[in-house]
Every structure is written in structure tokens, then in C-alpha cells.
């Protein structure tokens, strides 16, 4: 059973989706520990409610990002974590953490990367006038939202959408994608080939499509 | 009935999709003229077969891009064209043409813009490791593939995809999207609000999604 460490700074709804999927046995993984840099983060109480170790690692006590990440690596190892999942963790990751878990750190982002990396991805999509957006689970590398893409899901952008309504529509897909991506990693089905990912044993339906709503109305 | 002028340099499969949609009466428009800068382009013979004026406008005879576009505008006006559709037209458009048909020039591009503008969009998507890509019909402005987006459709990227197989999957959606976008323009339903487009009377289903195939297998 693959052991996951989840890093979260905020409310942790993706964390909850992962906790639920593990609890229901729908993915071959278990959450070994949840860590946050924010005291009182909802993510920590979600972990406690699920009976999972909830660790606060406040950054104020560390002289540098490297020192902070070294402590993080130490904690992750103590909990025998195989795979690290970022779920709204609002800190940059240093090479200290990256090299300790090379190709074993996942992140989720509310856009079809490489479109709209960085902050305010949903706002960026609306500003660009996109009619389709979505979310991406990717392997973390040294860049910002640049690592190999494991799974993406697309959703329509509707005329009346605000940042809130579009973000909520995307979030529903995030909660599907993140557990699924973890499951694929746990099954050893994710092969990284340069910037492209190949999923062993995948049997996708090439005929499925999603269009902006005006196409069919 | 809206009158369309189509500019094409190559084989013109999108041209054919538009000719067919007009011939079947499935969109409230008719093709008034097809113009190409390439002698012997398949697009011209497609037009002839459909009984539509097919005009060759070779650029060699014009001293400048502006002079070429001025002649193009003159021809489009002579054929009482309301809407210009670029369908694989491999020349840059100058402000001469843009200003004569402001917000009345459409283009189709094989990506979910603003991702992968310019040449080799399908190759770019594969290189980026995207698991979802698609196509975009947009209003042409002074930039390269930057104008307001009217319609987008998403397709999955599959593990074994080459540039050819992915381009073919996207092309199927292009042939759906382009006639539909023209129909929306002809119905006066496309409202441009800054960079965003709003479609009057749109009733999209916000629950429809498309995921990379690994999500459901």
C-alpha cells in the first residue's frame, strides 16, 4: 500500500477527496501524514477527524527555505512516505525536497497546463476569454507548474461565469482527478518519457470530446 | 442570409465543412466566394465543384502586403461578403484587411488557445505533454491567434499519439466548430466584451466534462 504525505496550507478540499478515496478503498494508497505550514489550517483538523497524523510545521522557526524543507523531508521519511501530494500548499518547494522525492511529488492546478501557470489561474482563463478550461495533476519539478502532466480534465466556461463559479466547476473535477492520479502512481502505471507521461495499460476512448456549450445548443 | 468569403491556401477541409453546412441549410449563411493565394490549391477546385466563385489572388503581382490586402478587400466587397473566414490561409493579414472587416474575420486554430499559438500547434501540445488539447474558432485581431474566442472543443491526447493522429482527432472537431461559429455570427449572437465573447441565448450544460482517458479506465 503506497503511503502518501499531503502538504496543505488551507481548507484542504482536495485533501478531503484523497482521504475519502483512501478510506473507501477506492485507491490502493493510505494517507500517512498531513502537514501544514499554517496553524489552525482546516487541513489539519480534517486529518485529525480522519485519524491521520496532522503535523504543523511553521516556517518561522527555520532560518532558510532549505532548512525548512530538510525538516519536512525528515518528517516525511519518519512517516515512511512514498509519494508527496501538494494540496494548496502555499510555499515554494526547494531542491532539498525535490531531490529527496524525485518524480514522487504531485501537484494539482486549476487550469489545463501549460496554460495559466502560477497564481490566479481561473482569473487568467476568464481574462483570456477561454471557453474551455480545466485542471491538471502533474509531477512537480523545479519550475512553477511545469512538470510532466499525469491527468487533465476539461470543463466548459459559461457566459455568466465569475472566478468563483468557474473555480467551483473546476474543483469538482480536481476531486476526481487527484485520487485517480495517485492511484495510477500507486499502481506503477505512470511512465515519464521526457516531458510526456505514458500510462501503462490505458484504454482511453479517443472519440470523447468536450465543446464550448454553444456548439450543441 | 450572411455572405461568407473564405480564404484558403491548401486542401481546404474546413472550407469543405463550411460549404457542406451552407449547402445543407444547416447554417443561415452562404459562401459568396473562395479566394486562394496558391494556384492549383485544392480549395479552389472544391469551390468550383460547389458552384462557388473561386478566385486566385497570387501575391507575386503586388508590390506590398498592403497592396495585396487592398485588392483582397476590393474583391470581397465586390462579392458583398459580410464575414471573412480564414481556413488554412498561410499569409499574414494586414491592418488593411482587418480594418475593412473589423470583428468580422474568423480563424480556426488546432489548439485550445491561448495555448500553443502560431505554427505547429499540435506538435507543441505533444511536446508539452498535454493530456487534453482541442481547437478554437476566434475573431482575428492584429495579433497571432490572439483574438476573442468564439468556440472551443477539447479532445483527449492518447499515449500513442503522433502529430498526425492527434491532428486528425482535432480536425474532426474543427469541422464541427467552424460552421457552428459562423452560424452564431450569422444569427448576431456573438457579443464581444473586451477579450471575452458572450453568446446570446446560450444554454450550455455546465456539468459536461472531458478528462484524460486515464481518469475513467
List the helices and strands and how they pair.
Two copies of one chain form a homodimer.
Chain A: E1 2-7, H1 13-23, E2 29-36, H2 42-49, E3 54-56, H3 65-78, E4 83-86, H4 95-100, E5 105-109, H5 121-128, E6 132-139, E7 149-156, H6 163-186, E8 190-193, E9 196-199, E10 210-211
Parallel strand pairs in A: 1-2, 1-4, 2-3, 4-5
Antiparallel strand pairs in A: 5-6, 6-7, 8-9
Q: Give the biggest beta sheet of chain A.
A: 7 strands, mixed
Number of helices of chain A: 6
CATH fold label of the largest domain in chain A: Rossmann fold
| Shape, per Cα inertia axes of chain A | globular
By CATH, the superfamily of the largest domain in chain A comes out as: Formyl transferase, N-terminal domain
Q: What Rg of chain A is obtained from the alpha carbons, in whole angstroms?
A: 17 Å
Beta strand % of chain A = 15-25%
Could you say what the CATH architecture of the largest domain in chain A is? 3-Layer(aba) Sandwich
- Measure the end-to-end span of chain A: 46 Å
- Total beta strand runs of chain A: 10
Outline the structure in words.
The structure is a homodimer of 217-residue chains. The first copy, chain A, has 217 residues and is α/β, with parallel strands linked by helices. Chain A folds into 2 domains: 1-102, Formyl transferase, N-terminal domain (Rossmann fold); 108-217, Formyl transferase, N-terminal domain (Rossmann fold), CATH 3.40.50.170. Helix content of chain A is 33%, strand content 24%. Chain A has 6 helices and 10 strands, in the order βαβαβαβαβαββαβββ. In chain A, the strands form 2 sheets. A 7-stranded mixed beta sheet of chain A has the order 3-2-1-4-5-6-7. Chain A has a two-stranded antiparallel ribbon with strand order 8-9. In chain A, α4 (95-100) links the parallel β4 and β5 (105-109). In chain A, α1 packs parallel to α6. The longest helix of chain A is centred in the C-terminal third of the chain and has 24 residues, at 163-186. Chains A and B meet through α5, β6, β7, α6 and β9 of A and β6, β7, α6, β9 and β10 of B. β7 of chain A pairs antiparallel with β10 of chain B.
Amino acid at each position: 500500500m503506497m503511503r502518501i504525505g499531503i502538504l496543505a496550507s488551507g481548507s484542504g478540499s482536495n485533501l478531503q477527496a484523497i482521504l475519502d478515496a483512501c478510506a473507501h478503498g477506492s485507491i490502493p494508497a493510505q494517507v500517512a501524514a498531513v502537514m501544514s505550514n499554517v496553524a489552525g489550517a482546516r487541513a489539519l483538523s480534517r486529518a485529525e477527524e480522519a485519524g491521520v497524523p496532522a503535523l504543523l510545521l511553521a516556517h518561522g522557526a527555520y532560518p532558510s527555505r532549505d532548512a525548512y524543507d530538510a525538516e519536512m523531508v525528515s518528517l516525511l521519511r519518519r512517516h515512511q512516505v512514498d509519494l508527496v501530494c501538494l494540496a494548496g500548499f502555499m510555499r515554494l518547494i526547494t531542491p532539498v525536497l525535490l531531490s529527496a522525492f524525485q518524480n514522487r511529488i504531485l501537484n494539482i492546478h486549476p487550469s489545463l497546463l501549460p496554460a495559466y501557470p502560477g497564481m490566479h489561474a481561473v482569473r487568467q482563463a476568464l481574462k483570456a476569454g477561454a471557453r474551455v478550461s480545466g485542471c491538471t495533476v502533474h509531477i512537480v519539478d523545479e519550475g512553477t507548474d511545469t512538470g510532466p502532466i499525469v491527468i487533465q480534465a476539461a470543463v466548459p466556461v459559461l457566459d455568466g461565469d465569475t472566478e468563483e463559479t468557474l473555480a467551483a466547476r473546476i474543483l469538482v473535477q480536481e476531486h476526481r482527478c487527484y485520487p485517480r492520479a495517485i492511484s495510477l502512481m500507486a499502481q506503477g502505471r505512470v511512465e515519464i518519457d521526457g516531458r510526456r507521461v505514458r500510462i501503462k495499460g490505458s484504454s482511453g476512448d479517443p472519440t470523447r470530446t468536450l465543446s464550448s456549450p454553444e456548439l450543441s445548443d
